[in-house]
Backbone:
């Protein structure tokens, strides 16, 4: 299987899917935002496995990342139903959570995943692309807490939900120099 | 598509080769997982290859790949052990990352903590050079289908 899935931004299928925005119920076509296009190389361009499975950055805001993965036969996890692998959803949510974490920081910092918990609510629909929207719920001097949801059309009909924690400045002590009480609560609108 | 899973497992067990079951999971093949039975234990191997990298600066394996490796190791260990009628489904999985995965081969073994009739509880651990220094561990629940 050729790992060349990053060519072209989105599979046409995903562009044609309307996405119900969770904030105002507005239906809009999915196309990567300008900011996502601009930052994609920086946050996903150097992730070989992200490229291998075809992760695509669709939108980023402060403390938020929306990442997509196109359906592909080599990503199947259930041979009987052709449902995409839980492992791919793990990779998608892990990466999207990491990007949301990076997007919550004021300056680039190395981060390390401490843990990631995923609840699989239902099987993903065979043949459909998947999206993961991850949001930072709280950032402290040392830790960033992120929650995520994986879905096809609407966050209200999730395939999986995740919570993750990340350690900040995993390779230096800069984060520790921030004043006590510098914790940020990230609230909508993201 | 669906050959009788039970007889497929029986054939794999008779051949002493759990990799036959892994070969039914396209994503497991894609990341290059293999499985080896030694006595009553199955060891899963994730041979290193460059496209498993998540952070090329360190370099480190992609956390999602490590999580997926743990999950699929658990799934195959479970069907190898429990011989269900249908593929179990992951209900939830919680992964602790202890050390960054270096660009070398990774191994995993699963413990079926409770092989329930409807739900199985598993713990899975992954390591690299040293068995006693795990890089990640997971615990998860899997829904057993066709058990009734």
Residues:
């Amino acid at each position: 299987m050729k790992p060349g899935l990053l060519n072209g931004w989105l599979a046409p299928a995903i562009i044609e899917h309307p996405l119900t925005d969770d904030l105002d119920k507005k239906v809009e076509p999915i196309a990567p935002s300008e900011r996502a296009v601009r930052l994609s190389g920086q946050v996903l361009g150097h992730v070989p496995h992200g490229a291998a499975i075809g992760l695509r950055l669709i939108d980023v805001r402060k403390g938020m990342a929306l990442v997509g993965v196109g359906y592909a036969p080599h990503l199947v996890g259930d041979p009987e139903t052709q449902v995409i692998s839980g492992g791919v959803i793990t990779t998608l949510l892990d990466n999207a959570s990491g990007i949301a974490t990076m997007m919550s920081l004021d300056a680039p910092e190395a981060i390390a995943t401490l843990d990631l918990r995923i609840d699989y609510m239902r099987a993903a629909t065979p043949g459909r692309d998947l999206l993961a929207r991850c949001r930072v719920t709280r950032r402290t001097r040392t830790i960033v807490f992120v929650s995520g949801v994986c879905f096809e059309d609407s966050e209200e009909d999730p395939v999986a939900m995740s919570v993750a924690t990340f350690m900040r400045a995993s390779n230096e002590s800069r984060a520790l120099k921030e004043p006590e009480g510098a914790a940020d609560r990230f609230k909508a609108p993201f | 598509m669906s050959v009788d899973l039970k007889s497929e497992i029986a054939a794999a067990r008779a051949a002493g080769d759990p990799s036959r079951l892994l070969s039914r999971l396209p994503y497991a093949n894609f990341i290059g997982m293999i499985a080896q039975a030694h006595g009553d234990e199955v060891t899963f191997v994730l041979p290193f290859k460059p496209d498993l990298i998540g952070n090329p600066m360190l370099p480190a394996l992609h956390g999602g790949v490590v999580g997926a490796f743990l999950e699929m190791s658990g799934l195959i260990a479970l069907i190898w052990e429990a011989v269900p009628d249908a593929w179990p489904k992951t209900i939830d999985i919680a992964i602790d990352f202890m050390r960054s995965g270096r660009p070398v081969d990774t191994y995993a073994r699963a413990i079926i903590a409770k092989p329930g009739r409807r739900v199985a509880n598993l713990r899975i651990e992954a390591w690299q050079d040293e068995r006693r220094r795990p890089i990640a561990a997971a615990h998860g629940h899997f829904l057993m289908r066709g058990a009734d």
User: Anything to note?
Assistant: The two ends of chain B are 22 Å apart (CA to CA). Residues 95 and 138 of chain B are 4 Å apart (CA to CA). The domain at 5-143 of chain B is CATH 3.10.129.10 (Thiol Ester Dehydrase; Chain A). The mean pLDDT of chain B is 92.
